[in-house]
Amino acid sequence: DFHGSIRSWIRKENLCPDDTFLWVCFFCNNQYRINAAGSQVSAQELKSTFEHSLEQVGQMVIMLNDFFDPIYISRAWCIFETYVCIDKGLPMTMIVPPGAQADFKRKL
User: What is the DSSP-derived secondary structure letter of residue 17?
Assistant: First the structure.
């Protein structure tokens, strides 16, 4: 679903895949991995790291697993990321996998 969602977004936004780069928070600033390693990283340090990275990237793409019960909105860290994006006045786009898009259209 990750690949399909990104591919659909790139196509919809008319972006060149070879010139489109993504900073994926889960891989670059994984709060679970940091905490599991017994690190003394504070919530403020995680916040600062995310804010700096988001400002450098300049926009946020939120990937939902579906329209009807997205896991994203049940996770405090994800809500926090959304808050930071809004607070910084950066553009935000929500995307879903192609299958979830089709389910949504069928249910309309």
Answer: G
